[in-house]
Automatic annotation (TrEMBL), chain A:
GO molecular function: NAD binding; NADH dehydrogenase (quinone) (non-electrogenic) activity; quinone binding
One protein family per Pfam: Complex1_49kDa
UniProt-recorded name of the protein: NADH-quinone oxidoreductase subunit D
Superkingdom, taxonomy of origin: Bacteria
EC number: 7.1.1.-
Domain NADH-quinone oxidoreductase subunit D: 168-453
Gene: nuoD
Keyword set includes Nucleus: no
Reaction(s) catalysed (UniProt annotation): a quinone + NADH + 5 H(+)(in) = a quinol + NAD(+) + 4 H(+)(out)
Region (Disordered): 1-29
PANTHER family for the chain: NADH DEHYDROGENASE [UBIQUINONE] IRON-SULFUR PROTEIN 2, MITOCHONDRIAL, NADH-UBIQUINONE OXIDOREDUCTASE 49 KDA SUBUNIT
SUPFAM superfamilies listed in its UniProt record: HydB/Nqo4-like
Residue spans crossing the bilayer: none
Tagged with keyword Transport: yes
TrEMBL record, chain B:
Segments of skewed composition (Basic and acidic residues): 1-10
Biological role: NDH-1 shuttles electrons from NADH, via FMN and iron-sulfur (Fe-S) centers, to quinones in the respiratory chain. The immediate electron acceptor for the enzyme in this species is believed to be a menaquinone. Couples the redox reaction to proton translocation (for every two electrons transferred, four hydrogen ions are translocated across the cytoplasmic membrane), and thus conserves the redox energy in a proton gradient.
Organism of provenance: Actinomycetospora cinnamomea
Keywords, alphabetical: Cell membrane, Membrane, NAD, Quinone, Translocase, Transport
Xref: Pfam families: Complex1_30kDa (PF00329)
EC number: 7.1.1.-
Subcellular localization: Cell membrane
Membrane topology, record value: Peripheral membrane protein
Domain NADH:ubiquinone oxidoreductase 30kDa subunit: 130-251
Protein name (Swiss-Prot/TrEMBL): NADH-quinone oxidoreductase subunit C
Amino acid sequence: MTGPGNTTETRTDPYAASDPYAATSRETTEGTVYTVTGGDWDEMVDQTAGDERIVINMGPQHPSTHGVLRLVLELSGETVTDARLVIGYLHTGIEKNCEYRTWTQGVTFVTRMDYLAPLFNEAAFCLSTERLLGIDVPDRAATIRVLLMEINRIGSHLVALATGGMELGALTGMTNGFREREEVLHLLEFLTGLRMNHAFIRPGGVVQDLPTGHEERIRAFVKVMRERMPGFHKLLTGNRIWRQRLQGVGYLPLDGCLALGVTGPILRSAGLAWDLRQVDPYLGYEHYDFEVPTDTAADSFARYVLRVEEMNQSLRIIEQALERLEPGPVMVEDAKIAWPARLSIGADGMGNSLEHVRKIMGQSMESLIHHFKLVTEGFKVPPGQAYVPIESPRGELGAHLVSDGGTRPLRVHVRDPSFVNLQAAPAMSEGGMVSDVIAALASLDPVMGGCDR
Amino acid sequence: MSGEDEKPRTTPETPGTGAGGASGPTGASNVSSAGAVAFGPQEIRRPDVSGAVAGRAREGMFGVTDSGDTSGFSGLRLPAYSPPPAERPYGGWFDEVADETTAALADDGGADFATCVQQVTVDRGEMTWYVDREHLVRLARTLRDDPALRFEFCSGVSGVDYGDGVPQQLHVVVHLLSMTYRRRLRLEVALDVADAHCPSLVEVYPTADWHERETWDMFGIVFDGHPSLTRILMPDDWNGHPQRKSYPLGGIPVEYHDAEIPPPDQRRAYT
């Protein structure tokens, strides 16, 4: 440390004694000329060269943090020495809201949790409800669910690639990913009526049968996706920049995954072929022939490759589901659970079919009462609790539902994989560069709507 | 069983207004008055059943509490649901896990299985162990480490509030998964509202970190031994724990004759 006394002697400034960093000046014929020196720069460099740490906030409104996620990074130079995640910016109280809705209305809420995989939220919630009710859905409903979920999985993985590409600067990956996702959304809109937040899967089955012409549309979709899927490999997989940004980045080995509860593509990238569709099949997944791709690199690049491969496998499942789609009911027969109305598309959108309205309004008072009670009051669910996990695009999505015997859930808890996987972000990114934090986060593919619920 | 279930029903009235008496007119007054006393100094009543009461008692046919029951079934009383203890054999791998845990705990030299696990319930193909909180961490470590059990993965920790008037209304629910054997097990710890403390599982399952923070945030359950038990979803300066059943909910004011849509828990409901 140099004392201020060393510099004051050259100063002509009368205030120099009180300000060690004041510029020196000289009177000339042109006026006063100040000599501005480095000021305290040398001292500052000395100070920061030691163990001075810089804490920066990234987010919650940062385009690279994958949503409203806030990262508190402690930096030494450009090396991240400590990373802490702050979540909760998208907390919407969906779990609490569900406690004041019927079980059927709960679907409308949970579908908005993980908004990139709405059909998975619905399926987990409905499977758990059905376990509480002790019912099984008809085969056709199960197959439709599988079909929709796999289409949704492709859409979700495409967003993972697209936003991940955007965050790393691969903007063509972003535009291509979202272009392909638009195909998914168009198809889902055709099949369910809505692009997102479908509320199509309901306790007891699905809300209505697939529209006519669904098979052609789905086959056309599969064909288009088959043509475009190699594009990702052409654009990104062999891309040197892409590889250098991702390979060896965001490393999380298997023991770390298990300790931190990480599931999904991140777990599979560490070498464990853990996919609930195969190890704990639901909705008849045991009848489908598909691979669970794994890798052992446990880095961001492996996760990217796995996601692309999982989309290819999803296309296989979609084709098999189409083959398995036999005519039949799409809702349980039990009139005490099944939605009373058959829905149809009218001039003003989807609603109760005209035949049903004619019946309840003109012919059968009992049908009207039944319809009214089931829609307003809902059905009673026997008391108890159930936890049903399914394999969402991000990992284990579990719905823990508790009933006390009423027409509303006593407790709805969704174990969302985004929430759990995000815990692994510090382990993945500490010791790396700031830019690697982005790559690691992108490979986690968190969806804050699901994380904060 | 039904006689035991009736007892918790009267618990909240004792320190409350006293107007309800032994034969309270409706369930609504019980529930609302209980909300005020839940956090105050009150006698902690342990349930007489070994396990937990998981639900509230019901009156009448439709569960309506505000305007009386016109169905003629207003005298109907349904006791609160209590998950029944399972009898041996539990079926499937459930017995094997129970036996192995019993043996592992015995080898350990500490409290035995019957002390650690107050009740075993098998329901809908899922096994639930109601665990004494004193032994939760040791039990979890045994479940994780024993080669015959290997519950190496914790799916999550969450809470359930069964509502005021239910003895030990707060439950901590832990879902464990054995990837080796492909088994799932649920541990449940019932807690008193006045003593909502549960030992933290973070040292056994690091993934429980955020789950326990969320459970603290939402239910006000204190996880002793947690490295940094702070709020996670709600803002840091928030008051109260939103997922408690007694947490006040807001109504919606309507700009018409000073009307207000009542809060969801006070609306007419058939549950």
